[in-house]
Amino acid sequence: MICSGALVLWGICSVQGQQEVTWEDLTDVSFTSKYFGDTDGYFLVPSFGPDVKELEGKEISVTGYFLNLAPEEGIFMLSQNPMASCFFCGGGGPESVMEIKFRNSPSFKTDEVVTITGVLELNAEDINHCNYILRDARGFAL
Predict the structure, then answer these.
(1) What CATH number has the domain bearing residue 41?
(2) What pTM was estimated for this model as a whole?
(3) Is 27 helix (H, G, I), strand (E, B) or coil?
(4) Longest C-alpha distance within the chain, in Å?
C-alpha cells in the first residue's frame, strides 16, 4: 500500500513538474540590431537576461493565443496577443511570441486561448526561427 501511494505521488509530481511562465517573465531580454549578409538585412538579436537564461532547457507552461500559421508545414506559434495585434502585425516585440514544435499536430484554431507545455530553447542567432522555441510541446484549450 505504501508503494502504490508513493507511485501515485510520483505521478502527480511528474505531471506538475513544469514551471508556469508568464509573458512578463519572458521580457528579461534586450535587443540590438545586427546586419546579416546572407539576407542583406538587419534583424533584432536578443541578449537574454539571467531570469530567462535560467529557464532554458526546462519544461515550462505558457498561456496565450494560438497562431496556426502553416499547419501543413508544422508552423505554429503562441502569442501574448491575438493575431490582429501579434508581433508580426506590430502589436508587440519579439519576446511576445514563441515558436511551437508539437509532439503531435494540434487541432487548435487561430486565436484560441491555450496553455502549451514544452522544453524552452533560446535562439539568439537563427533568424529563420523565433527567439523562444518550445520543443516536444503539448497543449490544451482553456
Answers:
(1) 2.40.50.870
(2) 0.83
(3) helix
(4) 66
Task: Provide the number of structural domains found in the chain.
Answer: 1
The answer to whether residue 13 is domain-embedded is no
Q: What is the mean pLDDT of the chain?
A: 86
Beta bridge partner(s), residue 117: 61, 138
As a whole number of angstroms, the distance between CA 138 and CA 142 comes to 13
Q: State the Cα–Cα distance between residues 64 and 100, nearest whole angstrom.
A: 12
Using the Cα atoms of residue 124, residue 49, residue 27 and residue 119 in order, give the sign of their dihedral: positive
Taking 50 as the threshold, does the pLDDT of residue 23 lie above it?
A: yes
Higher pLDDT pick, 71 / 121? 121
**Sorting pLDDT into bands at 50, 70 and 90, what band is 142?**
confident
